[in-house]
Amino acid sequence: MKCDQCNKPAVVHETVITAGVQTTVHLCAEHAMMQLHHVPASAPIAELLAAHLTGSRHQPACGGCGMTLAEFRKHNLAGCSACFDALSPAIDQAIQRAQGGAAAHCGRAPARRDDAEARQAYRARLLNDLEQAVAAERYEVAAQVRNALRDVDGIAGQQA
Amino acid sequence: MKPIENGGPWLGPLGRDADVVVASRVRLARNLAGFPFTNRANTAQRREVVSMIRDRSQGAAWGRMLGWVDFQACQAEQRTQMVERHLVSKQFAASDAPRAVGVSADETLSVMVNEEDHLRIQAMYSGLRIDECFAAASAFDRGAESALDYAWHHRWGYLTACPTNVGCGIRVSVMLHLPALRLTSELDRVRRAAKELHLALRGFHGEGSEPMGDFYQLSNQITLGLRDEEVVGELRDRIIPQVIRYERLARETYRAKAPGAARDRFIRAAALLTHARLMPLDEAMKLLGRLRLGIASGLTEAIDSTLVHRLLLQVQPAHLALARPGDPLETLEQQSAARATLLRDALAPLRASIG
Fold it and tell me: Between residues 22 and 51 of chain B, which touch chain A (CB distance below 8 Å)?
């Protein structure tokens, strides 16, 4: 992913919702700093972003436990299962950063928990992720997504 | 808590590759659906999580082997003793919220309830025995899964409070003794290589602890996009054997370069441990580490590594204090004196052999 303002690799990805329209900004370290020039340059980048986000925009909060994005970023801890959808996509990025870019779980799933509808929605999302990963030539991610797809289909196969 | 002689998985018979590997551990992080994670749960919810997990495991074949300890009712020294024995984490021992730990009689399996996640299932064995650890932790996990509803997400797998654990929630860690790599200044290279492979190299007590006596824990950092068998296999077949080879090579190089120095370091450590009247903890750990290297190098047959492993635990502050009821070790000097006495007594056969 390249910076929106130059050709350098983007390191900051921010999704902004203004009047119901979602846009994603990709910036390199330099341009991200330029946008945040009013904050001391010595502050760590996470704090810079937190200050920037809390200062200027509405914070989504988790309906399950009330956790806001700023709280999540402060402690790097989710508050409940619902946070993983409520705080998306910011939490997705945090997970992928912590996990060396990995895109999805693969492998064992609890036998007791299966929900056909959620699985279909997830499958559709994975197909979309796969397409994007291939288009971006991120083959390692694509391979992971493909494994996750096989897992989903495997669960469905077992139940059929 | 039982006396130390009875338990402790890494006090048992030495496992495979014991010249370098002290112990192996596998930890699984799980949460219950329908409850906020520990950091967001109130006291009543935390109590409910404790009793739900304890009650369901006590009545079932998969969980009956655990004896439960209510941590709130535990005295400070007992808490610390469990940290020293690697049964609970430092963070777990420091908290005052409702929480409990289930421990099997041989201490190979321990289950923390209300640590950062509702369940932290860990299994530990001496030597390089990652498979046995994984099997033991998985057996409990599968049992628990049949009786409890785990928090689960179609994309992120097993949900955990911290993004670093989501997916399969597995942390494989191997406790290594790497004195020669440090002596030959190769440890930084290992550390850099580990980082590139998304592994962490930490001190004796894991996260946030200092290396003592050249003991380190090497563990995986990635839990997403990999099956737990892949995480286990990667460390077991590729990474740990490589580190073992490096350490053995460094030991040979060091011995070949300075055979007199290797022997001298061992004799000096033995002499101090068998004669000193005051022994601070960090010095004891350092000297015990040198003793262990000497044993692995065949410099003595008077004692073996299992004794060193037991002493590594017995010299820790809470173990020292609990071994001497009615004799409060109020100052650091009293503690050092008690430690020195313990070491002199335990290592008497060594004193005779170094003459």
Answer: 31, 33, 35-37, 39-40
Tally of structural domains, chain A? 3
Q: From residue B308, how far is each of A121, B261, B295, B296 by CA, in Å? A: 56, 21, 9, 11
Q: Is residue A110 part of a domain?
A: no
CA distance B13 to B142: 28
Task: Spell out which residues of chain A touch residue B167, defining contact as CB-CB under 8 Å.
Answer: 99, 102, 105
- Please judge whether A79 and B146 are an interchain contact, meaning their C-beta atoms are less than 8 angstroms apart: no
Q: ipTM for the complex? A: 0.85
| pLDDT the model gives residue A152 | 72
Q: Report CB contact under 8 Å: A107, B227.
A: yes
Q: For the whole model, what pTM was predicted? A: 0.80
Q: Range of A23's domain?
A: 12-57
**pLDDT tens-digit map of B216-228:** 999 999 999 999 9
Q: Does A65 share its domain with A85?
A: yes
Whether the per-residue pLDDT at B196 is higher than 60: the answer is yes
- Which residues on chain A are in Cβ contact (under 8 Å) with B159? 78, 81, 84
Q: Is A56 in contact with A37 (CB distance < 8 Å)?
A: no
Report the gap between the CA of B298 and the closest CA in chain A (Å): 42
Residue B119 touches partner A, C-beta closer than 8 Å: no
Residue entry with tokens 């779980």? A105
- Establish if A143 belongs to a structural domain: yes
Which residues in chain A come in under a pLDDT of 50?
A: 36-41, 55-56, 159-160
Q: Which residues, other chains included, contact A32 with Cβ-Cβ below 8 Å and sequence gap of 6+?
A: A11, A12, A45
Mean pLDDT within B310-337: 90
CA–CA dist B328, A64 (Å, integer): 48
- Domain membership of residue A145 (yes or no) is yes
